[in-house]
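the two lines:
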Amino acid sequence: MKHKKNSTAKLNVLEVTHLTKNYREQKAVDDLSFAVSEGEILGLLGPNGSGKSTTINCILALLKYQQGEIRIFGEPMTPASYDLKRKIGVIFQEVAVFDELSVYDNIDFFCGLYITDAAERKAKVEKALQLVGLTKYRKYLPKQLSGGLLRRLNIACGIAHEPELIFLDEPTVAVDPQSRRRILDNIKKLRDQGATIVYTSHYMEEVEELCDRIIILDHGKIIASGTTAELKQLVKDRSVKQVVGPTLNDVFLELTGRELRD
Amino acid sequence: MFWQNFKYNLKLILRDRSLIFWTLAFPLIMALLFNLAFSNIENSEKFEPMAIAVVENAEWQKQEIFQKAFAALSAEGEEQLFHTEYLSETGAATALENEEITAYLEFQNGQPKITARENGINTTILKTVVERIGEQSQVVQEILRKNPAQLGELVRQEAPNLKDASRPHLSYTMVEYYTLIAMTCLYAGMISMTAVNRFLANMSLSGRRVAVSPTPKRWLILSGLSASYLVQVFGLALLFTFTIFGLKVDYGENFALVLLLSLVGCLAGTAFGVFVASSIRVSENAKTGLMIALSMFGCFLAGMMGITMKYVVDTNLPLLNQLNPANLITDGLYALYYYDVCERYWSNIITLVIITLVIICISIWNLRKEQYDNL
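prediction for all of em together
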């Protein structure tokens, strides 16, 4: 990574201001504002349909939005912000690779969209293969990989070009504990190398382990934000019944409710 | 960047078995079926020269163009339309009565008159020929001066009823092969459409990953288009090899120009696929259906299911066929055959190139800064 983590300089890598996105009449994201500083891992939590993925897709300039401003590295983010896009990596919720290409070719193709120099790209692809532990599977087709290996390939495709800002949208869904451990370790490595990360997940223990700060979204709005300790204290303070040593899961359920979501 | 994307586009295309079947193998199967279906019809319906007579009187002696035209049309060989006897008026009437001839032609006061036993297809053919020679005496005169053998072609080309019933080059099969070439060219659009869909965020998950990358869409489109074109050119090469060496199809003397038109047509087909992928926001299946339907409809209007359709559209809705890539390809091939290298052939090629450039520009513009309402 180009930027080593530096605790003295905390620039805002990402700034979202008054973001509003409607799907027809329904507000998916409602006047959302937050910032992510350099080297930080921000956890975006929320029940299904709370607006996490929509927020990320708006930030990436994939979705149109009705109102608000998005700045990355201080520059406004638009579909034609090619210099900004070069610094961004995305790991989508679903595995987004080509079934017809081998593990190596998939990483090489996506990395090639960012890195034009063949020698530099080759080195980065090898590094990514190593990072996610897929070196020996390089010639495999995606259909020959297990769910956990596929998730690791998905991550490798998103980070091979060594981005400075990474969006990870539920990267550990449906993987076994061993693969999850590996993926979490990889994310820590990326952070240690200086990357700024926006991380969404439904697994509270992951968020607690990884994230420096957490934003809890519901119905497109921020309902709470802070460090894990701050959120736990918030629940302790507002709870009618005495909650003893709440976990982040308790915090989440307390804030977003216990009724089922669509 | 272009070559990297081109390489992977090529890999992706070649590993898509369904796409390869429909674009490379399907035209070969169609060619084989056409050959099996139409070769027998052709043999059984091969045109036999018609026995006629011309009344050789003083009036006939004044009709220099008709004399030369009938001599050319009665000369032995593939082009022969008539067995012509030159008789007196009585002799012609007797021959008709004895059923030695189908009809006879006589000039009275400078006007041609046809007397026939009955009004059948042969009488219609003779009437059509006489009318066309009369109407286009200047053109006929020019052809007779340069290449009398082409007169039969002109007569057949101007009289659609004759087209299906006469010589091999105007057979059902040749018409089908021409439209099959057009279909193969347009099917290139299936490949390019699939290639561009892979880069669209609303079409595929991998498309989302591509859409957030810093690679401008124009490079992705151009690399997808180039890889698709290369694959379909290979498909065309297979089709030509199979039809020429396997099915013994004769594409005439200007084969290089047949190839040139096919290559340009293939480029137009490829661009058409890019246009559908980039300009129409429906599901991938709907786009595929639309591509097949438009390609087949274009070929239908160009005469794939019967040459009469092309004639009807050319006559009543000429603009439609002037903008129909399938017709521009088949029409260019007809023109090439009838007139050698002619204005119509080059005009069709230029139109195809213009259509291609316009739709590529529109496609790039459409995708330039694309954002979606939902994904």
